[in-house]
């Protein structure tokens, strides 16, 4: 469970071009994100005034909004300017997580029909002091009964705000005293966790599931790129739950938590029950790369 950081007590967030104190409401009850979760989002991480993967995240935000038919999508430059203004208002430079939300906008009256949206998108920028959220000593996962949908239900290539699927899985994990939930796709293969992508290590080689029932993760793609450059074999393929149980190591990837080892799945110890050497190497490679290759914004 994440912990509240006192440094965030008086942060200011951006909504619709205005900076507001965290306790000041700024979202209209007619906004589509309130009416139906009709929004897309991205998570960014700030390292010493640089945002890692900024262009890739903004590209995915735009693709998701375009797929949903949003009108008046702000340009990457406009989104970046809002991010910079928010960071400066909060005097933030390092160890910061930024949540971008782009909604379809405000409706003229409540209802599902997108034709009721006539004023363009609403952009929300929430920046918090937030170090990587996972315990570096290893995570415990349990397999959820909740399945990740494929593109025939809701295409995971749309990075949308409807997270009930993930929330229900997280609730199951919490009841089972686990850190997160491992989720399967509709065919019974591993998809991801409720919040992160998964990698298994067998004989020093990495394997990660296809993005059939999970988003095309930017941290995941970075790990595959870094592994190739470091001479670590990596494949993208279907992975069964049994292959996760019997892996030498398992780790998860994501912007908010970076790289985190998994030491237990469904009560079974992974490998020797400790975070393994390949996981630690990948984590070091990733953090070094992310800190050195971000887009300067401050």
CATH class of the largest domain: Alpha Beta
Main sheet: strands, sense, barrel: 9 strands, mixed
How many separate helices?
7
Helix content: 25-40%
The amount of beta strand, in percent, is 25-35%
The strand count comes to 16
Overall structural class, as computed from helix and strand content, comes to alpha+beta
- Uncertain stretches of 5 or more adjacent residues: none
The assigned CATH architecture of the largest domain is Alpha-Beta Barrel
Name the descriptors.
298 residues, alpha+beta, D-amino Acid Aminotransferase, Chain A, domain 1, D-amino Acid Aminotransferase, Chain A, domain 2, 2 domains, nine-stranded mixed β-sheet, seven-stranded antiparallel β-sheet, 27% strand, globular
Textual characterization of the structure:
- The chain is of the alpha+beta class and 298 residues long.
- It has two domains: 6-129, D-amino Acid Aminotransferase, Chain A, domain 1 (2-Layer Sandwich); 139-293, Alpha-Beta Barrel (D-amino Acid Aminotransferase, Chain A, domain 2), CATH 3.20.10.10.
- It is 26% helix and 27% strand.
- The chain is built from seven helices and 16 strands.
- It has helices at residues 32-36, 54-67, 76-89, 164-175, 218-229, 241-245, 277-292, and strands spanning 12-15, 18-21, 39-47, 50-51, 96-103, 122-129, 139-143, 180-184, 190-193, 197-202, 205-208, 234-236, 249-254, 258-265, 268-269, 295-296.
- The strands form two sheets. Strands 7, 8, 9, 10, 11, 12, 13, 14 and 15 form a nine-stranded mixed beta sheet that branches.
- β3 (39-47) and β4 (50-51) form a beta hairpin.
- α5 (218-229) packs across α7 (277-292).
- It is globular.
- The mean pLDDT is 97.
């Amino acid at each position: 469970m994440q912990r509240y950081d006192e440094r965030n007590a008086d942060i200011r967030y951006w909504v619709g071009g205005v900076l507001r104190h965290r306790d000041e409401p700024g979202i209209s009850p007619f906004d589509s994100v309130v009416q139906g979760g009709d929004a897309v989002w991205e998570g960014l991480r700030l390292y010493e005034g640089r945002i890692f993967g900024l262009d890739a995240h903004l590209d995915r935000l735009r693709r998701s909004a375009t797929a949903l038919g949003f009108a008046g999508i702000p340009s990457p430059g406009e989104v970046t300017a809002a991010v910079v203004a928010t960071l400066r208002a909060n005097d933030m430079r390092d160890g910061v997580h930024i949540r971008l939300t782009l909604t379809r906008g405000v409706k003229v009256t409540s209802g599902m029909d997108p034709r009721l949206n006539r004023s363009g998108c609403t952009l929300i920028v929430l920046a918090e002091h937030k170090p990587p959220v996972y315990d570096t000593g290893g995570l415990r996962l349990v397999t959820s009964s909740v399945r990740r949908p494929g593109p025939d239900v809701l295409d995971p290539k749309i990075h949308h705000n409807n997270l009930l699927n993930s929330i229900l899985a997280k609730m199951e994990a919490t009841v089972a005293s686990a850190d997160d939930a491992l989720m399967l796709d509709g065919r019974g293969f591993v998809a991801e966790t409720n919040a992160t992508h998964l990698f298994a290590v067998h004989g020093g080689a990495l394997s990660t599931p296809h993005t059939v029932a999970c988003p095309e993760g930017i941290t995941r793609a970075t790990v595959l790129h870094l592994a190739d450059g470091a001479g670590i074999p990596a494949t993208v393929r279907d992975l069964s739950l049994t292959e996760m149980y019997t892996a030498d190591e398992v780790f998860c990837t994501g912007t908010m938590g970076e790289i985190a080892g998994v030491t237990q799945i469904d009560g079974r110890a992974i490998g020797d029950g400790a975070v393994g050497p390949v996981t630690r190497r990948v984590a070091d490679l990733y953090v070094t790369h992310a800190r050195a290759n971000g887009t300067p914004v401050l």
